[in-house]
What does this fold into?
Amino acid sequence: MLSRRTTAAAIAGTAAVALVLTGCAGGSSEPTSSPTSSSAPSDEKITLTVATFNNFGYTDELLAQYTELHPNITVEHTIAATSNDARSNYFTKLGAGSGLADVEAVEIDWFAELMQYSDKLYDLSDPSVDGRWLDWKTAAATDADGRLVAYGTDIGPEGICYRTDLFEAAGLPTDPDAVAELLTGGWDTYFEVGAEYVAKTGKAWFDSAAATYQGIVNQIDAAYEDPQTGAVIATENPEVREAYDTVLEASATQSAHLSQWSPDWAAGQANGDYATMLCPGWMLGVISGNAPDVTTWRVADAFPGGGGNWGGSYLTVPAQGAHLEEAKALANWLTSPEVQLQAFLEAGTFPSQVALYTDDALLDATNEFFGNQAVGGIFANRADAVTVAPFKGPKYFAINDAMVQALGRVDIDKTDDAESSWAKFVSDVQAIG
Amino acid sequence: MARTMTGERPVRRLGFTQKMNRWDVKVSPYLYISPFFILFIITGLFPLLYTAYVSMHEWSLIGGQGDFVGVDNFAFTLANPIFWTALRNTISIFLLSSIPQLIIAITIAAVLDTNLRAKTFWRMGVLVPYVLTPVAVSLLFSFMYADQLGVVNNLLTTIGLPAVPWHSDSFASHVAIASMVNYRWTGYNTLIFLAAMQAIPRDYHEAAMIDGAGPVRRFFSITIPSLRPTIIFVALTSTIGGLQIFDEPTLYDQYGRGGNDKQWLTLTMLIQNTGWRENGNFGRAAAIAWLLFVIIVVIALINFAITRTISRVDATRMPGAKKKGVAR
It folds into this structure.
């Protein structure tokens, strides 16, 4: 109660910050020289702002390198706590027409939503970035008019993380190569090994239904929306229903029934509540943070059904900014292979830049927590295995959220069975559409 | 001075200065308070009316104003079962937080009103939870109420009770959220009650003591009736704040969307979900906001009526009531 006051204070605070930001942007004048695609169009002293979330690996030292290259440009960096915060900030200010940073980071899950308004983003097409990224990464950032509106930073190719001590107790192989061999195959292979594990130990095989579903749905070409018409097909798509049923059937015995990102889920990584989990590159940092004292986490170079990608981000330049060419040059530099490599070594954000996949600095990168495995090479392999670039339309985020809740009702809360929870999902989707 | 002058020689026509004086007396009080009302019109009334305007249109977060749709947004909201679930949750959390909170706050205030050692220490002590930010409190409590490894469930299972499904069961989640609210606001209300209690003339208590009334009787027959205006104030602010509860339920789990089955989705969270999270449908969000406004006004009026009746019944039994009257 009375949280009205704090909310009001928060709004006032945000408004004040926005005022200051817009004040800054308005205060410095437009570059006088004609825009060129060279990296330093003007000698005027300017400040560029970069807004990211979580951990992009952009340290102050890294950004200072840019000022060394371009002495007239100072880079200021603001970091939102979560991708959700960044999303609401982005859309609110995009609607308002001012207040966004010169370079704004976008996460892949709400990227499609943003692409609806690609005319509010600056065209970043440039000969210097041709062929820099994986094809599907570039394709998703190109709008209907062929403008490239975002530069890729990282991607989330998925492997499988597992615990050797729990595998050993169940009589399964523990060596990463042997485990990779064991788990290579379709989802049925993964769940069969899971059933075997559960039968022997009576413990859970994976963390949650929703996390596992995430892996399957990212292999479906067009899960929720028709790419041609944009119509919502989530409730009629047999592939979605099949994924839902498969996961819930396995979850009944194999899931640890934990809600992803909850305190219980995090503690489960330390306590050995589950033996495996789907593991994009950035998840390694999450696990080592949650279970610093566990020495038995390893990552297997395998993924059910081929390859899968979970997450990853882009940098955009909103057209409302005052220094568009300079911002474009900065985004170009930040997403260059050399800089992305530094970011990867700092924060484990796996590059989307193809040139790095043959670079020894990436391939030989090891992770101490994961028994000094050469994780750089493993995830390069996993990125190679990704064949499907799922279509994620503007309603993907909202529909997927409803699906995660539908799975949670059955897997975690047990307030519904698969049928009744699906019925609620259908009515949720109707409210969205 | 002026009076004697007019008494001796009646003035036929008011001079300019005198006219100004009259105007000064009549108008200036309104001028002095006008900044508040001007600010209110800009920051309170205008948004209220503008929200009503938005609620009658199709309105998207980024696309802006669309077609005029009349009451469609209201009709959709009233037909939407999620709205009714959110209303149920909001009222349930409101009752679970406001009622115990008022009772506990009055009790603690009564204890603090007695002759304690280190008075200021205790009085400041109750305010500590209020100083903590709601986000910090919610984080702390979300660890305590974790379903499997939380402190609360650990304690319960240790003493042989079954663990409570804090995030699956609707009522359990309301209790947990209400406990965060109570933790934060009880101390604040305690201080308000304490201030009011200290303004009660000690004569009443002394007279009652001589008549043989014990501390409990004095608490119910003197303290409570004397607190009537304060209770009304606190009940009203709790109603307004309680029905707009947002921070605590949003931070109750890591997603902030009110539970998989909308177990603890409140109306303000529904407004946020509708306006910002899903499709950015401002029209529907504005309609919910207006319905919430109407609900708050209605409940505040009911509340006002109830608290007035309760205090009035008590007041007639109060010994001092006949002599001096209670309400100040």
